[in-house]
Amino acid sequence: MCKCGNKKILLIITGVLALGIGSIGIVLPILPTVAFLLIASICFVNSSEKLNVWFEKSKNYQKHLRGFIEKKGMIMKEKLTLLIPVNIMLITYMVIHDNLLMRLTISFLIIVKLIFFAKMKTLKKMDNVVE
């Protein structure tokens, strides 16, 4: 098999795994749903037109990613829905466990996430409606 075929297979496998983890993240807020669905989207775009079309029609894509990709931002409610539960869980975990390296790592993740969401365009509610 050529290297091109191997790359496509690797992208498909990575995309399917990212989609699975992103789907789990919908019910388990510690996992970043949008990030994993974005990885899945990138993998499907670069590997399989059929998978990409299927993914773009899926409920997960429509609900969690479409507005973000098309409008390059999120409404404040979406940002807070992502940030608040995850930060509560991470801070709780950080307080319960007495491990300096883990606390520093979690603090770093929280700061990076907050910076990312602060820099991300905040849409007005009407801007996020996709026809």
Describe the structure concisely for a colleague.
The chain is mainly alpha-helical and 131 residues long. 76% of the residues lie in helices and 5% in strands. It has helices at residues 3-27, 33-45, 49-57, 59-64, 66-71, 76-96, 100-119; strands at 73-75, 121-123.
Brief descriptors of the model:
131 residues; two-stranded parallel sheet; single chain; disordered C terminus; 7 helices; 2 domains; mainly alpha
Walk me through this protein's architecture.
- This protein is mainly alpha-helical and 131 residues long.
- It folds into two domains: 1-71; 73-131.
- The chain contains seven helices and two strands; from the N terminus they run H-H-H-H-H-E-H-H-E.
- The protein has helices at residues 3-27, 33-45, 49-57, 59-64, 66-71, 76-96, 100-119, and strands at residues 73-75, 121-123.
- Strands 1-2 form a two-stranded parallel sheet.
- The radius of gyration is 17 Å and the shape is globular.
- Residues 127-131 have low confidence and may be disordered.
Sheet/helix structural class = mainly alpha
Compute the number of strand runs. Answer: 2
Radius of gyration over C-alpha positions, nearest whole angstrom: 17 Å
Q: Profile the largest sheet.
A: 2 strands, parallel
Number of domains: 2
Number of helices: 7
Strand arrangement in the largest pleated sheet:
1-2
Poorly predicted residue ranges: 127-131
Reconstruct the topology from this structure.
Elements: H1 3-27, H2 33-45, H3 49-57, H4 59-64, H5 66-71, E1 73-75, H6 76-96, H7 100-119, E2 121-123
Helix pairs in contact: 1-2, 6-7
